[in-house]
């Protein structure tokens, strides 16, 4: 089946710093999403991005489907950005999740 | 905005009890999913449903069953709860069977004692 790897597994930043999170996947996919899991456990949709680049405020994402990776950029990080970031790719009618990047932003 | 609502945020049940986790979505989505999340194991698919009364096993269906009597509601049933079913349970829905965005509920943290 499709393997999804995220890096780095853990990241600690000072408030205001920028970061790049990476998601590699082992096979062609039709669909990819980025989620932020908040401290209460809810998965919040960040981007639905099968290909190309999207931006939403301080966050942006790029997926290069032909090279099997996606990047999530966080600029001017804030403490509220802390949590776990997951990418998920579509397998056969279901999502396959990476193991996540745990981000902690220090005030 | 799509809203996926899980009936409880926290639940404590005893070993052997029958447990129902309920999930409701308000966007007329065809497809609904139940995942569980465990430290070190990530999110794993338990069951999914692509239509009313239809269900498909995911990667870890053992010990669980599901019910989808109405389009908006997808229930996960633990027939006889065991301590190894202590976990975070996440419900999701999406419009089409593929190539559409998925939306998750707030999660239910179940503890079986």
Describe this structure in words.
The complex is a heterodimer of chains A (107) and B (113). By secondary structure, chain A is mainly beta. Chain A is built from no helices and eleven strands. In chain A, the strands form two sheets. In chain A, strands 2, 4, 5, 9, 10 and 11 form a six-stranded mixed sheet that branches. In chain A, strands 1-3-8-7-6 form a five-stranded antiparallel sheet, with no helix packed on it. In chain A, strand 9 and strand 10 form a beta hairpin. Chain A starts with a strand and ends with a strand. The model of chain A has no long low-confidence stretch (mean pLDDT 94). With 113 residues, chain B is mainly β. Chain B is 0% helix and 54% strand. In chain B, the strands form two sheets. In chain B, strands 2, 4, 5, 6, 9, 10 and 11 form a seven-stranded mixed sheet that branches. A four-stranded antiparallel sheet of chain B has the order 1-3-8-7, with no helix packed on it. In chain B, a hairpin with a 3-residue loop joins strand 4 and strand 5. Chain B is globular, with a radius of gyration of 13 Å. The termini of chain B are far apart. At the A-B interface, strand 5 and strand 9 of A face strand 4, strand 5, strand 9 and strand 10 of B.
The count of β-strands of chain B is 11
Helix-and-strand structural type of chain A: mainly beta
Instruction: Flag low-confidence runs of chain A.
Output: none
In angstroms, what is the radius of gyration of chain B? Answer: 13 Å
Give the helices and strands, then pairings.
The complex is a heterodimer of chains A (107) and B (113).
Chain A: E1 4-7, E2 10-14, E3 19-25, E4 32-37, E5 43-48, E6 52-56, E7 59-64, E8 69-74, E9 83-90, E10 95-97, E11 101-106
Parallel strand pairs in A: 2-11
Antiparallel strand pairs in A: 1-3, 3-8, 4-5, 4-9, 6-7, 7-8, 9-10, 9-11
Chain B: E1 4-6, E2 10-13, E3 19-25, E4 31-38, E5 42-49, E6 56-57, E7 64-70, E8 73-78, E9 87-94, E10 102-104, E11 108-112
Parallel strand pairs in B: 2-11
Antiparallel strand pairs in B: 1-3, 3-8, 4-5, 4-9, 5-6, 7-8, 9-10, 9-11
